[in-house]
Amino acid sequence: MASAAERHTFPELAKRAVADTQLRRNIGNATQTIRAKRAAVVAEVPDWEDLREAGRSLKEHTLRSLDRYLVQLEEAVTKAGGQVHWARDGAEASRIVIEIAERHSVKEVIKVKSITTEEIKLNEALEAAGIRPFETDLAELIIQLGDDVSSHILVPAIHRNRAEIRELFMRKLGLTELSDRPSDLTAAARTYLREKFLTVPMAVSGANFGICDTGTICVVESEGNGRMCLTLPQVLVSVMGVEKLVPTWEDMEVFLQLLPRSSTGERMNPYNSFWTGVMPGDGPQEFHLVLLDNRRTDVLADRTGRQTLNCIRCSACLNICPVYSRTGGHAYHSEYQGPIGAILTPQLHGMESAASLPYASSLCGACYEVCPVKINIPEVLVHLRTRAVAQSGFTLEKLAMGAAIRMFDNPRLLETAQKIARVAQRPFASDGYITGGIGPVRQWTKARDLPAVPSQSFRDWWRTRR
Amino acid sequence: MRVALFITCYNDTLFPQTGIATVRLLERLGHTVEFPENQTCCGQMHSNTGYGDEAIPLIRRFVKAFRDAEVVVSPSSSCVSNIRTAYLRSLVDTGDEALKRDVADLVPRVFELSQFLVEKLGVEDVGAYYPRRVTYHPTCNSLRALKVGEAPLKLLRAVRGLDLIELPDAQECCGFGGTFAVKNEDTSVAMLSDKMRTVLGTRAEICTALDSSCLMHIGGGLHRLRSGVRTVHLAEILASTEGDFIHGERR
Amino acid sequence: MSAAREEVLGRIRQALSRDPAGEIDIARSYRRTAALHGAELVDRFAERAEAYKATVLRVDAAGLADALERLRGRFVVPDDLPEEWLPPEFIRDHRQLGHRDLDAVDGVVTGCALAIAETGTIVLDAGVGQGRRAITLLPDFHVCIVPVERIVASVPEAVAALRTSLPRPLTFMSGPSATSDIELNRVEGVHGPRRLEIIILGETPD
Ligand code: SF4
Question: How far is it, in rounded angstroms, from Cα B232 to Cα A6?
Fold first, then answer.
């Protein structure tokens, strides 16, 4: 299904990834670890299924009245002393951030981990404008220093091991001595970034939730780099997708239970920050909220695809996914990986550039089962496959699928085909199994034998009985 | 009860023994089995691969074949799950209200074999005998879409002579996934390797499940390895009786 | 800017135009309270906070003086921290301290808005005895005094109680700062305080 515009298809990238046994082992161990942690803390919550239903319905309720809720949030933020900007696409959002930086003659900004700003390639835009972004989340720092790309929405450097990180830190942070103990590596990052926290006057963050009735924005995190960025600089800019709204403050009681347990497998992540506009004498004295569309409204217009916007980016679907846990994240060639990446990337970046992603799933349904906001990912995958087929031109697959329908819609033709298969398989069949062939059979038989078509079909048997 | 058998296209073509076993089993339990001969394929491959619209004639064909059935039973959880979840979804935009009504009317009467036995009929001991070490792989469609739960295990536990061995990481997908198995061959096989490792680790002689399709994938890998472990559909185990074995060997 | 606003809102309205009228109901069948009371409530909070590698002390009024007495070094405290909660050596913050000053002290002592037993979380809302956010962020050691009557059982109870704290900033803290970014090994103490000590104050109710 790969179209010309998709430069790196999932099967190609996955082939390389699964051949890398070290990577497969790292990702496999890591996902197993988080899965177990999540399962334990979810089992502790007696009303987990009720919370999931609440999460789903809250998200769907909000999306159904998204225009009204956005206006309400805008009013509340403005009233609390913040400034609200609207961006139709990534370029527009980046321009808004750059203009704010330029107005303050800022040459450096500190950043809180934010996939939304990755999605719009904000760092590249800032650099092009002569502004240096410093990623402050440990994993993002590892990615940034290594000129690497994220492979997991929550733990972006999950594919790197401690030895690689040590080598990277020594080289990039100019250290002559450093052990590969995670605590020492973490301490090195702390020392390196502390000076930045104390001196850089502007921060850029994403947002986990925007609370409409109070105008409060929420960022959840673990390391404290988020709190540093949200508290110490004079100017704070938060870039938030338009779908991240919750109607009222009280609704946070649902998401503050669903998110941490689903994502890091903790009862609560170490830090949640909530701020409302500007608080005199406490934190940034200038706050900007950038509301980003970037094709989210197209997703909203698709009644089946819309549920994708429920996502709270917990990453439970990545960790449980049997495909992700074999291939890792780079095979998805996107800032969104795993099952959510497979449905979000084609919708946000266009099917032409990601037509193989909806097929990067065995449709096992494990993602749907863990998703805290009940996104029926298999349903959306199948829906997007339909769109991929509709958008592709002539393919051999289409021809074959059409022929198969004609065969299946006519029992006589089906029987003829069974007979032809019995003859055609002869060169490849021995001992009741086919061990080679052409086309899909060749793909199948690279590592698996295929049962040969037996001489009598069920239908034949049924007739002999009567 | 009058049971209409939906054999499914690939059981018909590749695994007739699964269908034969289903017939023997249901008849042994005193039911009348019917086989509407105009049935073919539920359209699962098409709708899961993105050709849902093209598969609508197959929905129509299925409804026509089974409309008058008291119950429809199929030895394939994935086909039953396709019928239950995808049919109405595929028809949403067609405006064919009559067909939608027919589907809605028929779907509650369509059962996967083990669910039919345990949940609909309340039978656990079907009088089977099968002197083998067996491990059970819960296929994704049976586990998550149909939520068959303990039904197949209850049936297996009641089989005389059978030594049921628990499969570690049983809920992990085997990597079949329909066209996924060829479109993403490398990943599919990576998943299969792990599944085979756990199956072989149980020292079972037989790996069973509710789907011949997943078993074809697992069994195809095990055969390539010359492992000696075979895959057998649950229906065949349940259909077996003492008469099928002489000194523990199959006749 | 307002052109973008109108366009985005227009696209949203367009996207929703085929939806049936009416709102989607929010399913509220989840628990709003947890059945945790008295000693069990306090025990649960202590146990869950310790699970995050916070140090937990349980003291009465006399015990608090002893606990504070042990604190060595210079501690920053909010300007309205009660007299009885002061460590031996302290500097009151009237927002006169710069970030570098805060970075240089040995610790901070504060109270809290409330604490959540089920999750082992303390919540600061910039209210009395808590100060501005920076003072609990830059020092490497945070001592937080939690009067027993401030402990609530569950997240929904906490969220309900915090409504009146808004629009002041809120910070939920569960243990010291931490990361699992390197091979998923949890390391306590990254950018925020590396040590968190929670002093539960008051008679444990029955
Ligand atoms: S799709 Fe669901 S499980 Fe996956 S990241 Fe989003 S919220 Fe989490």
Answer: 41
| Residues constituting chain B | 251
Which atom of ligand 1 is nearest to A338's Cα? 4
For the four alpha carbons of B80, B86, B92 and B93, in that order, the dihedral sign comes to: negative
Instruction: Identify the residue whose C-alpha is closest to ligand 1 atom 7.
Output: A311
Q: Which residues contact C10 (CB under 8 A, 6 or more apart)?
A: none
Quote the pTM value.
0.96
Check pLDDT > 60 for residue A4. no
From the CB of residue B57, how many other CB atoms can be counted at a distance below 10 Å? Answer: 15
A456: left (phi over 0), alpha (psi -120 to 50) or beta: beta
The correct CATH number of C33-201 out of 3.30.70.1130, 3.40.50.10420, 3.30.1490.20, 3.40.50.300 is 3.40.50.10420
Domains and CATH numbers, chain B: 2-120 (1.20.1050), 133-250 (3.40.50)
pLDDT band at A214 (very low <50, low <70, confident <90, very high): very high
- pLDDT tens for B40-99 read 999 999 999 999 999 999 999 999 999 999 999 999 999 999 999 999 988 988 889 999
Structure confidence by residue, pLDDT tens digits, B190-225: 999 999 999 999 999 999 999 999 999 999 999 999
List the structure tokens of A255: 């998401």
- Label the pairing between strands A209-211 and A245-246: parallel
Q: Which of residues 141-160 of A touch B (CB under 8 A)?
A: none
Question: How confident is residue A2, by pLDDT bands cut at 50, 70 and 90?
Answer: very low
Residue with tokens 């990446």: A341
Q: Which of A323, A327, A365 sits opposite B140 (nearest CB)?
A: A365
The overall longest dimension of chain B from CA atoms, in Å, is 60
Q: In chain B, pLDDT over 70 holds for what percent of residues?
A: 100
| DSSP-H helix ranges across C74-196 | 99-104, 155-162
Q: What dihedral do alpha carbons A84, A240, A77, A218 form, nearest 10°?
A: -160
Residue owning the nearest CA to atom 2 of ligand 1: A371
